[in-house]
Amino acid sequence: MKQIVRLTKIFRFEMAHALSGYNGLCKHIHGHSYQLEVTVSGQPDNTPGHSEEGMVVDFAALKAIVQQEIITPLDHALLLKENVALPATANDNELFARTVRVPWQPTCENMVIDFARRIMSRLPENVALSSLKLYETATSYAEWYTSDNISC
C-alpha cells in the first residue's frame, strides 16, 4: 500500500515592498517579517541502506532549496514591480543595493505563486510541493495548494 507523507518546514525572512498604483498606505515602501511554511509530500524511501532511508526528503535538502531560491535573494531586500521608478540618486545609494525587480505587483498573493514556481522547479522527482503559506503579518497570509492549481 502506497503511504504518502507530508513534511513542513518553516522559514522566516525580512523584506520590504511597495505596491505601485495602490490606493492605500501600502503604496509606500514598508517592510514585513515574513513567515513561509513549505509543505511537500511523497512516499518515504525505504530502500535498505539508502542514506535517506525512511525519508520523503531530507529537511536539509528542502532548506537548501528554499534558502537558494527565496531567502538568500529576498531577505532584507526591497521588492518592487519592474516599472516603478526610483530617484536617480537611488542607483548610487547603498540603501537601495538590495532592490529586486519583478514583472508583477509584489503582493503576498503574487509572491506565494512565484515561490511555488521556484520551489517546484528544484524538488527531487519523487517529491511534490503540496502547499505554501506565506504570512505577511502575524494575522494575514496567502496560501497556495497544488490541488487548487492542477490542470484538469
UniProtKB/TrEMBL annotation:
Residues that bind Zn(2+): H17, H30, H32
Keyword Zinc applies: yes
Cofactor note (record): Binds 1 zinc ion per subunit.
GO MF annotation list: 6-carboxytetrahydropterin synthase activity; metal ion binding
Requisite cofactors: Zn(2+)
Reaction(s) the record says it catalyses: 7,8-dihydroneopterin 3'-triphosphate + H2O = 6-carboxy-5,6,7,8-tetrahydropterin + triphosphate + acetaldehyde + 2 H(+)
The keyword Amino-acid biosynthesis appears for this protein: no
E.C. designation(s): 4.1.2.50
Active site residues according to the UniProt entry: C26 (proton acceptor), H76 (charge relay system), E136 (charge relay system)
Keywords: Lyase, Metal-binding, Zinc
Metabolic or biological pathway, per its Swiss-Prot or TrEMBL entry: Purine metabolism; 7-cyano-7-deazaguanine biosynthesis
Matching InterPro entries: 6-PTP_synth/QueD, 6-PTP_synth/QueD_sf
First-level EC class: lyase
PANTHER family: 6-PYRUVOYL TETRAHYDROBIOPTERIN SYNTHASE, PYRUVOYL TETRAHYDROBIOPTERIN SYNTHASE
Similarity-based family: Belongs to the PTPS family. QueD subfamily.
Protein name: 6-carboxy-5,6,7,8-tetrahydropterin synthase
